[in-house]
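note to self — DONT lose this again. spent like an hour looking for the file last time. sequence + predicted structure for the chain T wanted, 335 res
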Amino acid sequence: MIKKNSQKLHILKIDKKDRRILYELDLDGRVPIAKIARRAGLSRQSARYRLNSLLKRNALWGFITFIDYSRLGFYSCDVWIQLKDIPPAKKSEFINHFLSHPNNLWISECIGRWDMCVSLIARNIGHFYKMFDKAQDKFPDVIRDYTVSFNVSGTWHSRTHLIDESEQPELLWHWESDHEIVKTDKTDRKILALLAENARIPTREIARRICVDPATVVRRIGRLEKKKVIQGYHGMSEGRIFGLSRYEILVKFRGMTPRQERSLEEFCSSNPYLYFYIKCVGRWDADIVAEVKSTEHLQSILSEMRETFPDTVLDYEAMPILKEHRMNFFPGSLL
């Protein structure tokens, strides 16, 4: 499980060298320290020292592995939840229920109409509703309202605003929910679980923990990458240290054609502050993740989107993400 440090974060003094380190880890969370040093114009010792300092100062809160769970026969569902007026202790109990849930991908708290979002993986719709019904039975006086989005596809781009907002973002990850199942065995799944927890875990450490030869680990990781079960690796840098705020923008379309939707995806991918686009089925048709400098900056992006797609963007909700509790693309249930 990957949990974000809950302490208050402040804007840190981050120079160009630090930004380059964070950007290289954004591109590839397993990038060797020697390559980071070369691209940042540093010695290995200096690059390692700066990386450790960034970790200590919570500029980096973890290293995730992009695992396409749809290739393992699972799908993801986002549940946006509005809570009743409940005591803080009850809210914590509710959050902890999902933190310990073996099918939980992501859980966050937000501000606005919805108080939190829980992302669960499931084999099918019936499996999802069984899981969520159990949560409602256990906490009958917690949920005031909720809405569900079933995720169809997603693209994740590099956050070029860390170094140069004029640079074109790079596609890091793309997944579709409709795929043939990739056959994996218990050893594959143990490797995926360790990489999901920490993308920078050394190969030899993986081999030691699961009691196989390091060459076996290298070979299996290579196969999982070739089959696109592993889509990439990512260092999770905290936008708030740069003075940026994270928003989830839920968008409703009106008669949008596939061609128009591709144009909207291109619009998002060309903006360095819009780095994650998810196509959904449900109340909302898309979920766009943004990191912005201010509410005015967000409003300018939204205004441009509506002006560019005046006849197809029907409605949207933009919700600030207050706290992320977990992000892990290989929940325990997949073992």
